[in-house]
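Let us practice reading a record.
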Amino acid sequence: MVKFTVYGEPKAKGRPRVSVRKSGDGEKTFARAYTPKATVVYENQVKIEYENQCGSFRFSDDAMLDVRIFAFYGIPKSTSKKKRQMMIEGKIRPVKKPDFDNIAKIICDSLNGIAYRDDAMVVDGMFRKYYSEQPRVEVSIREVGGEHEQ
């Protein structure tokens, strides 16, 4: 099992963007798809944190993986003391963006070729959102057996 933390507000995987340009003579039109800069920056942060905290560990190419992601959102500064305490205790949890699937997507995609061959190897997972004084995303990855679990 490996565990690592990405510090800072949880980020979502941005949708690919497309730009359309005309050639110099204006006769041809070209479309180019690109990944938004914020997504590239966060994916690089995930890779760096994984390598700093887990070294060069990589799961075998035939492994079946379980990924657990805990996203901790920062508490807004304007929050009352009472509400802040309820957030810290988990009695109030974030019902806001980014969505859990987009956070899981950016984390799992970032680890392709680093922690594992491809995120298609993930066969099980869990995701939870909380508030915290220290925003971050905690990730654990473990290999699972081939047994049928219920």
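A brief commentary: The two ends are 21 Å apart (CA to CA).
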